[in-house]
Each structure stands twice: as C-alpha cells, then as structure tokens.
C-alpha cells in the first residue's frame, strides 16, 4: 500500500460522504445544526480515520483507527435511522451503501490484523 488513497475502502468512504452531503441538502433548515451537521461529521469521520490510521507507523495504530472508523459507521447508521423515522429520508439505498462499506472495513481490519501477527 502506498497511501490511504490506494485503499478501496477509503475511496468508498469519500463516495459515501458525497452521497450524504447530497442527501442532507434536502433536510429541513432547522436541522442544519442538528442532524444535518451530525450526519455530515460522522460521514466525514469515516475516510478521515482510515487516512489517519494508514499514515501511522505501525499496524496496531492503523487497526485502532479502522475501529474508530467502524464506530463512525455505527454512529452514522443511527443518525440515518433517526432521519428515516422523522421522514427526512425516502430513498433507503444509503443503508445498503453503508453496509457494503462496513463489510469492506471489517475485511480490511481482519487483513491488517492477520498480517500484523505474521
């Protein structure tokens, strides 16, 4: 791996952020400092933590940041469920995208942990 930009999971995270910004642009204006802000920050946190972890010197730290990104996925999913329950989201495809990203991230965590142990 050269940099975080070579990781498919990071690229997918960037694409998810773009979807989130598009999705939240139609949220009510009164949510600008509430759900809209929280959702955007959680989304941005995912590829940001992947990038920060990849820049670390050892694999243990990399895995730690990958787990933080995984936590951000759970946080984002919760915020999107709340948004769906409030009627702000009609297109539920974002949940499929989030699950795919979560699966890729878990796969990367397993891969890095196995490589670290050998």
Separate helix tally: 4
Largest sheet: none
CATH class: Mainly Alpha
H-E string: HHHH
Mean pLDDT: 95
How does the helix and strand content classify structurally?
A: mainly alpha
Query: Distance between termini?
Result: 17 Å
Looking at CATH, the homologous superfamily is: 23S rRNA-intervening sequence
Using DSSP, what is the number of strands? 0
CATH topology: de novo design (two linked rop proteins)
* Helix proportion: over 70%
Name given to the CATH architecture: Up-down Bundle
List the domain count as a whole number.
1
Can you tell me the overall shape?
Answer: elongated
The low-confidence runs, each spanning 5 or more residues with pLDDT under 50, are none
* Fraction in beta strands: under 5%
Radius of gyration, taken over Cα atoms and rounded to an integer in Å: 15 Å
What would your notes on this structure say?
- With 118 residues, the protein is mostly helical.
- It has one domain: de novo design (two linked rop proteins) (Up-down Bundle).
- Helices cover 75% and strands 0% of the residues.
- The protein has 4 helices and no strands.
- Helix 1 (8-24) runs antiparallel to helix 4 and helix 3 (59-85) packs antiparallel against helix 4 (93-117).
- The longest helix is centred in the middle third of the chain and has 27 residues, at 59-85.
- It is elongated.
- The chain starts with 7 loop residues before the first helix and ends with a helix.
Concise description?
The protein is mainly α and 118 residues long. 75% of the residues lie in helices and 0% in strands.
